[in-house]
Amino acid sequence: MKVKISGYPQWVGPYQIAEKIIFWANKYDDDDVWADRQHRLGTWLAQDRQGNDSWLAKICAWIHKHLQNGGERRVSVRIDPTDVYGADHTLALIIAPTLRMLKAKKNGSPHVDNVDLPAELKMSKRDTKIFNDGHWDKKLKFTEAEKDAIDTKYHAGWDWVLDEMIWAFEQHERGNWDDQFHSGDHDIHWVDVDLAGNEVAADFDGKKLHRMERGPNDTHQYDAEGAKAWSDRMANGRRLFAKYYEALWW
């Protein structure tokens, strides 16, 4: 596999050039006289005397369209036949680190259904009302401390969902997650038996089967209950990934 995805190209036009020229101006400060001069310089660079696009603006647009792929990322993906022998593991190698980066760099949180959250992170109707309308509905009575606690819980809910997704795909990422539920040593013997299940000699010339038996030194144990709980949590993480897939842009 070879995957190459570029970043989004940054638009550079006349106004951006003006910002570089008058770099000390604060364009977010309405009282900064240099910000006004910076904007007027950008307009002068962007338009001709008739108010049409200047030659500089046209060049910037041509560069953006033809050399910067119209603002879209350049994507090159090659999948080799060996990548699909264990596609679940191959995909996890990409999904797990992507989710980790998303959590580290996210800028907000989408809505999460209460059914997907643990009890301590579920939002009550009052919580939801205050979170959604508290900034404008003057009829709602609440303290700033209460609102801060609700905001924290809301975002903690999305963090919890992301953590479950990440954990699930990390199990696939490392592979062989089931090994931890095996302990002890195998001592396996294969015994020849006839179709009725009776043990027969090695030189028996009739139809026979092979029965697996544990030897005297076999100490192997498998924690089926623990493995199922682990597997169920992985399945839930994958379910959350599918359900909130379109929210992974945050």
3D structure, described in words:
The mean pLDDT is 94. The radius of gyration is 31 Å and the shape is elongated. The strands form three sheets. A two-stranded antiparallel ribbon has the order 1-2. The chain has a two-stranded antiparallel sheet with strand order 3-6. The longest helix has 31 residues, at 144-174. Helix 1 crosses helix 2 (33-46), helix 4 (87-105) runs antiparallel to helix 6 (144-174) and helix 6 (144-174) crosses helix 7. It starts with a strand and ends in a 7-residue tail after the last helix. Helices cover 45% and strands 10% of the residues. The chain has 250 residues and is mainly α. It contains seven helices and six strands, in the order βαααβαααββββα.
What's a quick, concise take on this entry?
With 250 residues, this protein is mainly α. The chain contains 7 helices and 6 strands.
Judging from the principal axes of the Cα atoms, what is the shape? elongated
Side by side, the strands of the main sheet go 1-2
Sheet with the most strands? 2 strands, antiparallel
Total beta strand runs = 6
Number of H- or I-type helical stretches: 7
CA radius of gyration:
31 Å
What proportion of the residues form beta strands (DSSP E)?
5-15%
User: Which structural category fits the helices and strands?
Assistant: mainly alpha
Which whole number gives the mean pLDDT?
A: 94
**Amino-to-carboxy terminus distance:** 27 Å
Q: What brief labels describe this structure?
A:
single chain; 250 residues; mainly alpha; two-stranded antiparallel ribbon; two-stranded antiparallel sheet; 7 helices; 45% helix
